[in-house]
Design goal:
Number of helices: 10
Structural class: mainly alpha
Helix content: over 70%
Largest sheet: none
Radius of gyration: 20 Å
Order of helices and strands: HHHHHHHHHH
Number of strands: 0
C-alpha cells in the first residue's frame, strides 16, 4: 500500500477492519446454522437459547456483546465469548492480509487482478473460519464448505495463468495423495481413525492455493499446533479431536510468512 497516502492507508485499514468484524459476525451465524442443520438463507438471527428474533441493535459486532454484558437481552442467558472473539479474529485476518498486500499478490501487472487475488484470500480465510467453527461443534467439516473453497481456485488461475493452475494442482496432489496413503496405513496399524477424511480433503484443497512447498509446511505446522492443542485440552488418545482449527490457524501463518520461511530455509543449503 506504499503508493497510497498515509490518510488513505488509514482509511483502507479502517474499512478492512470493519468488514472483518461484519463478516466475522456472519461467519458465526453461518457456522452455528450449519452445525444445527439450519439454513443460512432463510430465517432471521435468533437467540440460541430462547429463540427470540434478534433486533439490529443486538447484532452489532463486539459492541452488542459488550453492551449486553454477555447476556441475551430477552432471556438473560449467558452468551459465549466465542462470538466476539471470532469477530475480532476475522478482523485481524482481514487487516493482516491487506497489510501483506505486496507479499501476497507478487508481481501482478494489473491492479484489478491484484485486488482479485486479495479478495480470494479474504473469502478463503472466511470459509476456513466457518469450517473450523463447525469442526469444533460437530467434529466434521461439511463438504459444501470444501467445495466452496475449491471453487475459488479458477479465479487464482485467471490471475496467474497456466502456471498458477499447474502449481496448484501439483501442490494438491503432491501433499494430498501421500497424506491419504499414510493415513490409511496408520489407521490399519493403530486400529482406529488417525485423521478424518474431511481433514485430508481440506489439505488437498489448500494445496491448490499454496503449492507443494507451502502445503508441506502447512501440514507440519498444523500438526504441531494440533498436538499442542490436544495436550492443552487433555484429549485422550482415542478421543476425537477437531483438527480443522489447527489447519485454519496454520494456513493463516503460512499465508503471511510461508514464502519468506521457505526462502530462508532453502537459503541455508545454498
Amino acid at each position: 500500500m506504499g503508493w497510497l497516502s498515509p490518510g488513505m492507508q488509514l482509511y483502507l485499514l479502517a474499512v478492512t477492519a470493519l468488514l472483518g468484524l461484519v463478516f466475522g459476525s456472519f461467519c458465526n451465524a453461518w457456522a452455528w446454522r450449519l452445525a444445527h442443520g439450519e439454513s443460512i438463507v432463510h430465517g432471521r438471527s435468533h437467540c440460541a437459547s430462547c429463540g427470540h428474533t434478534l433486533a439490529a441493535r443486538d447484532l452489532v459486532p463486539v459492541l452488542s456483546y459488550l453492551g449486553l454484558r454477555g447476556r441475551c437481552r430477552y432471556c438473560g442467558t449467558h452468551i459465549s465469548p466465542r462470538y466476539p472473539a471470532v469477530e475480532v479474529i476475522l478482523c485481524a485476518f482481514f487487516v493482516s492480509v491487506v497489510l501483506s498486500y505486496h507479499t501476497l499478490v507478487g508481481e501482478i501487472p494489473s491492479l484489478g487482478y491484484a485486488w482479485l487475488t486479495l479478495a480470494c484470500w479474504l473469502v478463503l480465510g472466511s470459509l476456513l473460519l466457518v469450517a473450523a467453527l463447525v469442526d469444533l461443534d460437530t467434529r466434521e467439516i461439511p463438504d459444501r464448505l470444501l467445495a466452496a473453497m475449491a471453487c475459488l481456485f479458477p479465479f487464482v488461475g485467471l490471475v496467474y495463468g497456466w502456471n498458477g493452475y499447474k502449481e496448484g494442482l501439483l501442490g494438491a496432489a503432491a501433499v494430498g495423495v501421500p497424506l491419504l496413503l499414510f493415513v490409511l496405513l496408520a489407521d490399519r496399524i493403530m486400529g482406529c481413525e488417525t485423521m478424518g477424511g474431511a481433514d485430508i480433503k481440506l489439505f488437498f484443497v489448500l494445496g491448490l492455493y499454496f503449492g507443494a512447498g507451502r502445503t508441506l509446511l502447512l501440514l507440519v505446522l498444523s500438526s504441531l499446533i494440533g498436538i499442542l492443542g490436544a495436550v492443552l485440552t487433555h484429549r485422550g488418545k482415542r478421543e476425537p479431536f477437531p483438527f480443522g482449527p489447527a489447519i485454519a490457524l496454520a494456513a493463516w501463518i503460512v499465508l503471511l510468512f510461508g514464502t519468506q520461511f521457505l526462502a530462508w530455509y532453502w537459503g541455508i543449503f545454498a
